[in-house]
UniProtKB/TrEMBL annotation:
<protein>
    <recommendedName>
        <fullName>ATP-dependent protease HslVU (ClpYQ), peptidase subunit</fullName>
    </recommendedName>
</protein>
<dbReference type="InterPro" id="IPR029055">
    <property type="entry name" value="Ntn_hydrolases_N"/>
</dbReference>
Length: 183
């Protein structure tokens, strides 16, 4: 139903997303963005618009209060996300196993992928993608990673190129694109 891409150079995080909403049978272009900034966090979601609305409008979390941002994200940040999704009626509990959804989040130049089981991933590659168009987008991001500087491609342009590739090669990704950058 979507494609969300993220790129970091260690200082700035760029997250971009498409505008498709899909139920598997029908695709609609929506005006409510899947990419947004909440305080110091830039986020882009897939899985459910409801989850994205809760993250955007109900999540209350301050900046990392420690030099160990990875630890903060895996504990304090995820605890706040779980509480937010549970209070909003979105989190699922199946035989004691709690699930949310997938989204990308950037903070302090770091890019994280939060998975449905609340696992927090931090890629070495400097880019990530989620949603139905993620494989195509990852291919685009990989192919431009080494040549971006020589070709004059900044992170914003690379994100748009990856999203455009996903539109071309998958059925559930649609423009317009929203791209946000945060340091």
């Amino acid at each position: 139903m979507t494609c969300i891409v993220g790129i970091t150079d260690g200082r700035t995080v760029t997250i971009g997303g498409d505008s498709a909403g899909s139920d598997g049978w029908h695709v609609a272009v929506r005006s409510d963005s899947k990419v947004f900034q909440v305080g110091p966090y830039v986020m882009g979601f897939t899985t459910s618009y409801r989850m994205g609305q809760l993250l955007r409008y109900s999540l209350t979390i301050g900046e990392p209060d420690t030099w160990d941002v990875d630890r903060f994200m895996a504990t304090t940040f995820i605890d706040a996300v779980r509480e937010c999704l549970t209070a909003g009626g979105y989190a699922k509990n199946d035989s004691g196993r709690e699930e949310g959804g997938q989204f990308l989040v950037g903070i302090h130049g770091r890019l994280y992928l939060v998975d449905e089981d609340y696992q927090v991933g931090h890629t070495v590659a400097g880019y990530a993608a989620v949603g139905s168009g993620y494989l195509v987008a990852l291919g685009s991001l990989h192919s431009t990673a080494q040549t971006a500087e020589r070709a004059g491609l900044d992170a914003h342009r690379r994100a748009v190129m990856a999203l455009a590739a996903a539109v071309e090669l998958t059925s559930e990704v649609r423009p317009p694109f929203t791209v946000i950058q945060a340091s």
